[in-house]
Amino acid sequence: MTQELVIVVLLTGLIGLLWAMTVAIWEGKHSTSQAHEADPSGDSSDVRPGESALERALTHQTITA
Q: In whole angstroms, what is the distance from residue 31 CA to residue 53 CA?
């Protein structure tokens, strides 16, 4: 019974972590697309305050795709 409980807890935590990462990535893409709509210049070389390296990479990848 104890081993099953440990496995269930670990799997639940793993699923929760994957869900949280998925939501964070989706929100990042969603906010990035809104930023492009608000700023139609299309210049991704300028760095905006508070923008992380991951957000810049996602922006660059979205523009080049």
A: 15
If 0-12 CB within 10 Å is exposed, 13-18 middle and 19+ buried, where does residue 36 land?
middle
Q: Is the dihedral of CA 10, 16, 22, 25 positive or negative?
A: negative
The predicted-structure confidence for 35-65, as pLDDT tens digits, reads as follows 555 555 555 555 566 667 777 666 665 555 4
* Angstrom distance (rounded) from CA 65 to CA 60: 9
Averaged pLDDT for residues 21-46: 69
Burial class (CB in 10 A: 0-12, 13-18, 19+), 41: exposed
Distance of CA 64 to the CA centre of its chain: 18
Please state whether the predicted TM-score (pTM) of the whole model is above 0.70.
no
Both structure tokens of 3: 């081993």
